[in-house]
Amino acid sequence: MFIERAKSIINSGKRIFLATDNIQTELLMKRHFGLHVVTFPKRQSLERRWPRVFDQIAAEDDLVELFLLAKTEFIVGSYFSSFSGMAIALNGSKKNEILCNTT
After folding, report:
1. 32 vs 39: CA distance, rounded Å
2. How many Å apart are CA 89 and CA 22, to the nearest integer?
3. H/E element holding 84?
4. FRET pair for 33, CA 20 to 30 Å: which of 9, 14, 16, 79?
């Protein structure tokens, strides 16, 4: 669902700010869309960003990424992501979307 939505956004002339805690998702999106995908470079390369033991630097990076996402034009988030929900609440755009794949 996100790939199809990303194609639509990019085809409309926009770039995507991708906020993700999954390195495989980041690599997949960058492979598909190249320079059309912008990410926040985290200071630590963690195998698993969430769940994890508390780490100050990783928490700071996550907070910066949340605020960056919240300042975008609109957000396409996941139904299962509290991060998406918080960014949408901070953003306030009527264009925000929640995608839910229940299959």
Report:
1. 14
2. 22
3. helix 82-91
4. 79
